Amino acid sequence: MRYRQLGSSDLRVSAIGLGTWKTYGGGGVPDDRARECIDTAFDCGINFIDTANVYSAGASESFLGGLLPSRPRESYVLATKLRFSPDGSPDNEGLSAEQVHKQIDASLRRLRQDYVDLYQCHRPDPETPLEETMEALTEVVRAGKARYVGFSEFPPSQIQTSLDLVRERSFEPFVSSQPQYSMLHRDPEAEVIPLCRSNGISQVVWSPLAEGVLSGKYRPATQPPRDTRATSERMGETIGRRLDDEALARVQQLVEVAERLGVTMARLALAWVLREDNVASAIIGATRPEQIRENASAADVELDTAAITEIDRILD
Predict the structure, then answer these.
(1) What are the residue boundaries of the structural domains of the chain, listed by start?
(2) Count of CB atoms within 10 A of residue 143's CB?
(3) Alpha carbon of 63 to those of 100, 133, 187, 264: distances in Å?
(4) For this structure, is 115 an active site residue?
């Protein structure tokens, strides 16, 4: 495993991170297999664990809270998020100062931790001024409940506003950005990544395998294989929009590139994301230990210029 600096922080995170969206703690993976996945992740050198208060209505945090405290605290970098309501109540939603303080305490109780390494805004909150949110996050850091703060899916204008507020109000700076980024979703390249790179903010990207589409197992004009995310009642509701025949045809061309390079399609897709030096970690969501072992090995794959050029041609 390789490790990368997370923005302007002193955290070093594994190039492959493990996420818990739709997987652990009631998210679709039986608990015994989920525990095996966590153990496998540590065995592979993965130290970055990402969750959120809303995943499985808080059960993902509780699941991790039953496992992580038995390990040395310095052996993992733990990240969670707030914005959406874990129980569907509007009283537990948003990025107001009240919610920041309320939700960090609730997350720490579920996680059985004294602090998290990274506390993230899950999405922007148009109902709350960013200044109020950042002031509350600064209080959380200075109270020792989080070491650093980050955000997910902030537009460039809001990222710039946060930078201005740090200069004007001496708030704790964001050190991480968590966008969707993959071969099939390259939007962050235009503005988010350049702005973050210039200001000490790293990317910890979600869905680098496009929910498994970039594994190559889905083919155009063909029913999805059984026992995959696309056919899962609990996990398949968002993948359907990705199963576009044109995109799947391009993925099959990428499979040929992977075969010529002697790697699996999943390893190729992860190595492609990690070619970007502003990406500190690519977060995977695995349902089986063998997926984790395969994906973790992508940290050692380096793509040469010829391979990247060919991939860009296929992606057009």
Answers:
(1) 3-210+276-301
(2) 11
(3) 22, 28, 33, 31
(4) no
Answer yes or no: are the C-beta atoms of 148 and 175 closer than 8 Å: yes
DSSP lists the bridge partners of residue 79 as 50, 118
Neighbours of 220 (CB within 10 A): 14
Task: Give φ, ψ of 82 to 5 degrees.
Answer: -140, 155
User: Which residue among 24, 55, 148, 218 is the active-site one?
Assistant: 55
Assess whether pLDDT exceeds 80 at residue 236.
no
| Residue 31, token pair as written in the block | 């608990």
- pTM over the 0.85 mark: yes
Instruction: Note the Cα 262 to chain centre separation in Å.
Output: 27
* Tokens encoding 253: 């061309």
Residue 97 CA, distance from chain mean position: 24
Q: What is the pLDDT of residues 117-137, one digit of tens each?
A: 999 999 999 999 999 999 999
> What phi and psi values does residue 238 have, to the nearest 5 degrees?
-100, -15
For the domain covering 3-210+276-301, report its CATH number: 3.20.20.100
| Average pLDDT in the chain | 93
> What are the b/e assignments for 58-74, b being 16+ CB within 10 Å?
bbbbbbbbebbeeeeee
